[in-house]
Amino acid sequence: MRVFAYMRVSTEEQGDSRAGLEAQEAAVMVEVERRGWTLTETFTDVASGKSLRKRDRLGDALRGMAAGDADALVVAKLDRLSRSVLDFARIMETAADEGWSLVVIDLGVDTTTPNGELVANIMISMAQWERRIIGERTKSALAAVKARGTHVGRKSGVDVETIRLIRILRDSGRSWQQIADALTSNGVDTGQGGRWHAATVRKIHMRADAPE
């Protein structure tokens, strides 16, 4: 079976990236040799694990999987692929839809086996439940924003309920532009009139999370 390997070190780990990568490489190679697989290509990113955004090499790997260039994607540790359950579930769902397998060595997720498929399906179900919970939280936060109206806040110029809504939408994996579009389409007041913009949403989020 042909496999791709994906590895990642965070920007904080970049100074010691070689050691981190060597550990991941060793784990992958042991598994590849044990299973008799053929490692056709390795993809490496230096990026945060909080989101799938800004990880160009992961995107390259996923496009290669979709094109049928390999049969499975192998990673040494779950947190090298994603620290978000929702993002991980999206990758597993993509793999299932496109007909390729995902192997996460430290977690024991291996969709090339029946037991691994069962574990993956359980995790996907949990992520779908989490998405529903986020959806309910979003509806609740939006209702609070509309009921309260806009009040100027000390840091951002918008009310605390709007800040909470932005956080919920961001935690659900939305981009800054998607959040701005959602706020505009739902009639959330900017406090200054007009449409919401991605840069404005990002600034509010960053200021709200900044230390006092």
CATH fold-level label of the largest domain: Rossmann fold
Number of DSSP helices? Answer: 8
The CATH architecture of the largest domain: 3-Layer(aba) Sandwich
The CATH class of the largest domain: Alpha Beta
Derived from helix and strand composition plus strand pairing, the structural class reads alpha/beta
Helix proportion:
55-70%
Taken together, the total number of domains comes to 2
Strand order of the largest sheet: 2-1-3-4-5
Morphology: elongated
Whole-angstrom Rg? 20 Å
CATH superfamily of the largest domain: Resolvase, N-terminal catalytic domain
Summarize the structure in words.
The structure is a single chain. By secondary structure, this protein is of the alpha/beta class. The protein folds into two domains: 2-112, Rossmann fold (3-Layer(aba) Sandwich); 132-209, no CATH class. It contains eight helices and five strands, in the order E-H-E-H-E-H-H-E-E-H-H-H-H. The chain has a five-stranded mixed beta sheet with strand order 2-1-3-4-5, sandwiched between helices. Strand 1 (2-9), helix 1 and strand 2 form a beta-alpha-beta unit. The longest helix is centred in the middle third of the chain and has 35 residues, at 114-148. The protein starts with a strand and ends with a helix.
Spell out the key features of this protein:
single chain; 212 residues; Rossmann fold; 2 domains; 5 strands; elongated
Short description:
The chain has helices spanning 17-35, 56-66, 78-81, 85-98, 114-148, 160-171, 176-185, 198-209; strands at 2-9, 38-46, 72-75, 101-104, 109-110.
